[in-house]
């Protein structure tokens, strides 16, 4: 059963309440979901081929070429699927997940982001490993001594 566009926007706003001012606009099913211009400290943009929301369970699902942008925490991510569990404030990415935050990156088969803790939990495909790359800055004194 198709929900009205207005009702769907209201429900999605509740589901993706990562920030108080985070409001979601839902386009036709074949188009992307886009957040409005985020306010300071809030807002997330999720783009994908298909998206659905279940108002009873509070679960939002995006499938196919998922792209996530969370400017407040400087997070960008891509995956095959993303599910946002609004009641737990948990985002689960699956399928060739790649996340970059402040220049640091992580690649895994599945990754869970605990929003309230600001923490990622990553798991690889069977017989593979999670790959992370972290920027490590040298202390100023070590750089100056080399010159």
From TrEMBL:
Keyword Transmembrane: no
Pfam families named among the record's database cross-references: LptD_N
Signal peptide: 1-27
Assigned keywords, A-Z: Signal
Domain Organic solvent tolerance-like N-terminal: from-to ranges: 72-118
Protein name (database record): OstA family protein
Native source species: Stanieria cyanosphaera (strain ATCC 29371 / PCC 7437)
């Amino acid at each position: 059963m198709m929900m009205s566009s207005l009702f769907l926007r209201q429900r999605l706003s509740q589901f993706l309440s990562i920030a108080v001012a985070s409001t979601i606009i839902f386009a036709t099913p074949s188009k992307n979901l886009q957040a409005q211009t985020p306010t300071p400290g809030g807002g997330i943009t999720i783009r994908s081929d298909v998206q659905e929301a279940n108002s009873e369970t509070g679960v939002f699902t995006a499938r196919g070429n998922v792209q996530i942008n969370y400017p407040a925490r400087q997070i960008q991510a891509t995956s095959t699927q993303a599910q946002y569990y609004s009641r737990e404030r948990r985002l689960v990415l699956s399928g060739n997940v790649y996340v970059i935050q402040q220049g640091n990156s992580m690649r895994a088969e599945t990754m869970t982001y605990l929003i309230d803790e600001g923490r990622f939990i990553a798991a690889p495909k069977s017989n593979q490993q999670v790959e992370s790359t972290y920027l490590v800055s040298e202390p100023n004194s070590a750089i100056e001594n080399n010159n």
